[in-house]
Amino acid sequence: MRRTSFAALAAVLGALVAPGALLAGGFEIADQGPRAAGRAGAFTVRADDVSAIDFNPAGLARVRGTRILVANRFTYANEEFRRASTLDWSDAAYGIPRLVNFDHVRNQLPFQALGPMLGVATDFGLDDWGFALGVYGPPGTASQRFPKDGAQKYMLVEREVLIVYYTASAAWKYKELFGFGASLQWVDLPSITFDLIINGNTSPRMVEPEKSRFDVENRITGSDRVNFTGIVGGWYKPWSFLELAASARVAPVHFRARSHMSVVPLNLELDEPPELTRDGKPDDTVTFSMSFPVKLRAGARYIHERNGVELFDLELDLGWEQWSVVDSFTMDASGLITEVMGQALEPGVIQMRRNWKDTWSLRLGGDWNTLPDWLSLRGGFLFETGATPKGYEYIDVMSFLRFGPSAGFTVRHWGFDLSAAYTYIFQMPSVVTEAEARVYQQMPGSLCKAPYTDTVNCSAHYLGQPAAAANAGTWLSDYHFVSVGMGYAF
């Protein structure tokens, strides 16, 4: 076994355990790794660099020698919500409600500079084996911030989700005919922040769609440091010009972040901030729950060679992700009580309904070895269905029908390679009417309970729904990703 391989593995292991070394996160959109990104993620079959730990660990069996990858993805996210005008029956004059119009709101943190992937792969001098260690975050947008008094405030004011995958992989192949591999992943959620406005009004039949005297900023911060999942994969090469492969994340990740909650009244002047208690004692602990899905990828790759040198390849991948595992994001504050102006408010269990559905994707991409061993150009195109069903659009994750092109290159010299890629993702706009909307203001103290038809405790103008709709309007989004990476092989 080579000492240099041990040294490389040790260096990456040091990065894995260094406190605060890398933070990345968000909900998945497009792909990690500059070579894969340049092919629009059509990399399940090719998977011949360190990023195989994520796409298809079986590909590591074909990595010869030792390879190091240091990469990063830069994100610019255009996310906009134009809330639909609504009637405010709480401010009706002579039975005529006031028409409320809202300003458009955009994500105030569109640029994010941190989306790293670090790793090392080595064969340890073994002909049929490959091993790797890596650390990276899921591709997505880690942070969002919107105006505290904006049209979106009853869904979200601020969100930050930092997730890191610590990964160890191994693969074995039989000659150049087939191979298998697996990645074991420790999934770390070092930090999560979720901030939204809830309406603390407990008065029967009072629904205020724009703002309430009892609006309270509800902020949670927490972490869930230990979760596990795994990726398995395989490839088969029946002919020199054709390869087939498949991989899967075999277990969902269910986060249960132990968190702390703070409540700040926005429109009341109080001598001191309200105190949170549980069983009569100061306590602010809550649990925030969300899930990441099982994923499947499968593909076929055509290889065109001349005199034993690969000139270009073309790969088509089909993907499926089980986002139906996400029924809601849940904040469990059972037993907590806060008192505001003599009015007890019990947050209870707040569910941010999602009702997500499974998604399907097609990715087509390939490389052209313009100058073999020196320069490769690549491109691709992806198409993916959205996870968000009509009426459940929510501003923290905009997952609609999306598509987009990508392009990239790799330059190689003296064992080093520099790769870069650009991906543009456009999502189809979504328009939600108030009749279609299924996301409502959070009013934990409301006496109006399901099925919301009690005319004593529910507003006659909102029968059948718990409060005013919060997500009616037009949703617009598109994304720009630039991935860069430096590799070294020896």
Give your account of this protein's structure.
- A 14-stranded antiparallel barrel has the order 2-7-8-11-12-13-14-19-20-25-26-27-28-29.
- A hairpin with a 2-residue loop joins strand 3 (86-93) and strand 4 (96-100).
- The protein has 490 residues and is mostly beta strands.
- It is elongated, with a radius of gyration of 25 Å.
- The protein has 3 helices and 29 strands.
- The protein has a single domain (3-489), classed as Porin, CATH 2.40.160.60.
- Would you tell me the structural class of the helices and strands? mainly beta
The CATH superfamily appears as: Outer membrane protein transport protein (OMPP1/FadL/TodX)
Number of domains: 1
How would the global form be characterised? elongated
Q: What amount of the residues lies in strands?
A: over 45%
CATH domain topology: Porin
Q: Which architecture per CATH? A: Beta Barrel
Share of residues in helices: under 10%
Question: How many E-type strands?
Answer: 29
In the predicted model, the low-confidence regions spanning at least 5 consecutive residues are 1-26
Radius of gyration: 25 Å
Major sheet characteristics: 14 strands, antiparallel, barrel
Reading side by side through the largest sheet, how are the strands ordered? 2-7-8-11-12-13-14-19-20-25-26-27-28-29
Quaternary structure of the protein: single chain
Number of contiguous helices:
3
